[in-house]
């Protein structure tokens, strides 16, 4: 009997040790339902990550830094600025082929004129309908380019106070309207055909500002011309002049002096009647 107890005792101790080890390890191996509910999943992005804005504010740090002393470093070269920034080769090619770039740089360097340029990227031109640029005449290409120029230096912060429609280097604001509005720090541009935003600053030196836009600004005057509104009708009660009637014609003279003539004729008639009465009275 004692031998059986001695044999069973070690077995019992081993069994108790194994049970204790299993209970101690079970919480680590089996996480609770509460822990599973709060554990993030790899395929479920957080709400904060989904709430990113669709349009980013423009980058105000210029891609090309202006020289510290522009007057000592030579004239402004818009082509070199765009080439150094990169991504504007199509815009540069059209500026050169139309010779608009010569006019722009002459105005900047031979006078105190200021200029703001909206420079479309290569991707912006790639987004146009195939063959659209080739279908334009030289005059239309010039108008398209000048539509991207404002005849003034406009800092990025001053777009909040511009008056719409904004005047460009193209024709009048009826055929070539351009509206610029701001939403916070975002600068929105609308042509009536295209809506885009300024995505960054390419260059600024207090005389010239170049901003990057991700779409080509298509003006109504080239791509959707509209008839001009009719001239206002003449005011009521105003006599329409006869093209065959001179202001010095006899008809006009009679019309102008009708009242005077009537008065004069009346006085003559009274005078004749008085003379006749005197003559008759003298006969008696």
TrEMBL record:
<comment type="function">
    <text>May be a cell surface adhesion protein.</text>
</comment>
<keyword id="KW-0732">Signal</keyword>
<keyword id="KW-0472">Membrane</keyword>
<dbReference type="GO" id="GO:0005886">
    <property type="term" value="C:plasma membrane"/>
</dbReference>
<keyword id="KW-0654">Proteoglycan</keyword>
<dbReference type="InterPro" id="IPR045003">
    <property type="entry name" value="FLA_A"/>
</dbReference>
<keyword id="KW-0449">Lipoprotein</keyword>
<feature type="domain" description="FAS1">
    <location>
        <begin position="75"/>
        <end position="217"/>
    </location>
</feature>
<feature type="signal peptide">
    <location>
        <begin position="1"/>
        <end position="24"/>
    </location>
</feature>
<dbReference type="InterPro" id="IPR000782">
    <property type="entry name" value="FAS1_domain"/>
</dbReference>
<keyword id="KW-0336">GPI-anchor</keyword>
<dbReference type="InterPro" id="IPR036378">
    <property type="entry name" value="FAS1_dom_sf"/>
</dbReference>
<comment type="similarity">
    <text>Belongs to the fasciclin-like AGP family.</text>
</comment>
<keyword id="KW-1003">Cell membrane</keyword>
<protein>
    <submittedName>
        <fullName>Fasciclin-like arabinogalactan protein 12</fullName>
    </submittedName>
</protein>
<dbReference type="GO" id="GO:0009834">
    <property type="term" value="P:plant-type secondary cell wall biogenesis"/>
</dbReference>
<keyword id="KW-0325">Glycoprotein</keyword>
<dbReference type="Pfam" id="PF02469">
    <property type="entry name" value="Fasciclin"/>
</dbReference>
<dbReference type="GO" id="GO:0098552">
    <property type="term" value="C:side of membrane"/>
</dbReference>
